[in-house]
Amino acid sequence: MNLTRKESRHIGVRIDRAADEVYAYASDPLHLPAWAHGLGRSVERIDGQWVAESPMGRVTVAFVPRNDLGVLDHDVTLPSGETVHNPVRVIADGPGSEIVFTLRRQPGMSDADFRRDTAMVTADLTRLRDLLENRGEES
Fold first, then answer.
1. Pfam families, from UniProt (predicted)?
2. What is the pLDDT of residues 74-91, one digit of tens each?
């Protein structure tokens, strides 16, 4: 059997907030512009789909249904029509949590582009951490 394998990078950021709080915030597509700049700085619901204006152009984002497992997987359909699956997990870690994004190298992606995407995802997850940790105890 010949299986094509993609290189993956697991990018994790520890967040000093409970996993259910991180999941509740990160799973709401309306919050994406506040922290997921790599995906887009605006998002709106159009004809039942979440549409973001991204650095790549207009993309649609489809999340798995909300769940109790911390799974935030989502598919991003690019302007070209290609769909990229993004596995994401929020994992409880004592009173805090860790969010882990699995970045998969796409066919034909250069080393420089893979490093750029890694840095972009890391920045997004760090922004999410900073936003949640600085919300105060009232959240």
1. Polyketide_cyc2 (PF10604)
2. 999 999 999 999 999 999
